[in-house]
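Reminder to self: tokens first, then the designed residues, so the page reads top to bottom the way the pipeline ran.
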């Protein structure tokens, strides 16, 4: 996944999800295995860390006559595929055009489309903790793809 903190997400939200009943023990085991896989470096692409918007969903993209303006950042360093995965997760008008423009300026590592769900696990877990609903199951399904 590029250079990620090895002791960071997605670990912290799991106990909260288990405590509130949104995750069962089998889900926790999947997330534990996913976290171990991420920590092992097996999913790294070798990309250098990039500055991320950090909360890039369609509500934080304002379309103007001059193009797109990004608002309300939660800037931090991480894998540059993460912001694109967030746009895909919550929908973005013209997403394919955004992705094509990104590819033209800064081509992504081969197989990036197969890693979209990888970068969605952490925001899905956070949404599960904050909002409940089906986010926990969606996170577990995404994590399962990489085991």
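Designed residues (147 positions):
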């Amino acid at each position: 996944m590029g250079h990620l903190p090895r002791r960071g997400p997605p670990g912290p939200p799991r106990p909260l999800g288990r405590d509130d009943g949104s995750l069962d023990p089998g889900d926790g085991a999947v997330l534990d295995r996913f976290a171990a896989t991420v920590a092992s470096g097996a999913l790294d692409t070798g990309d250098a860390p990039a500055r991320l918007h950090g909360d890039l969903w369609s509500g934080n993209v304002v379309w103007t006559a001059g193009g797109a303006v990004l608002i309300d950042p939660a800037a931090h360093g991480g894998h540059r595929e993460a912001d694109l995965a967030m746009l895909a997760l919550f929908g973005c008008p013209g997403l394919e055009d955004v992705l094509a423009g990104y590819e033209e300026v800064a081509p992504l590592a081969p197989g990036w489309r197969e890693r979209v769900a990888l970068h969605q696990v952490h925001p899905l877990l956070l949404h599960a903790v904050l909002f409940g609903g089906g986010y926990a199951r969606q996170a577990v399904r995404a994590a399962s793809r990489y085991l």
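The CA atoms of residues 92 and 133 lie 21 Å apart.
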